[in-house]
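User: Hi! I'm working on a homework problem where we have to compare a predicted structure to a textbook description. Could you give me the structure for the chain below?
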Amino acid sequence: MAPPQRSDDPKALAINPPQSSGRLAESNKFCAPAILCDIFSVKFKNTVPYLLTAGSVLPISLGMDEEASPRRRRKRSSRIDASVWLEAALQQLADGGIDQVRIEPLAAQLGITKGAFYKRYANRDELLAAMLDYWFEESTASVIATYADVDEPPPERLERILLTPFRRADFRERARMEMAIRLWAHHDIRAAETMRRVDAQRLRYMEQVLRGNGFEAKDAASRAFLIYAYILTEGTMSDAPRDGLRDRCRALLRSPQPD
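Assistant: Happy to help. Predicted structure tokens:
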């Protein structure tokens, strides 16, 4: 059977698919080496594109609506960004502790299969390691880098740090996640090492900011610790009004050391 002839006439191209060749359908040898194939697809409004081969015309999904292509929709959803996996895992951790971080519930929560998980992580242990790396970067390294990129006077930079608990809408939720990691660190070496890095880098940055505000090295170290403790505590306490207490605390933390 000769290959279909090309035509510039849209009406000729937007044809109803002819019946498949019984001989080719039975042998399932479309485009075999012995057969010369002419393959092309076209799409016009209200028409379905077809894949034309020697002896058969097969409908293809190129350009079809999302509802008409659930396989493509599933494939796209399985390629979600790593941060989505990690944020969902951290939420599991905050809700129920490290034992609640499980692959099957995690995949179900994200609406994808376990197979999609294993395309990204070899096993649960690799996921846990990725969670710790992500937390260090997201909660510490990138935050400090963002602060450092802002060109502002030293007093304003210090005030920015003191207002950290009140400027991020999800601060309390992030504090819940961090508390869960700290509890995990009591019996996991990797988690403990991650939190040591987190604490050390945050304190070091706060000391630098305080030195920029005129504090001596020793005073800067102790003041940085107090500020850090204040910020961590704010993440775990209720947000009930305290009659200006927070304002007075910030004023004390930023004020010069008395003689």
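For your comparison, note the following. Residues 10-59 form one domain. Strands lie at 50-53, 56-59. Good luck with the assignment!
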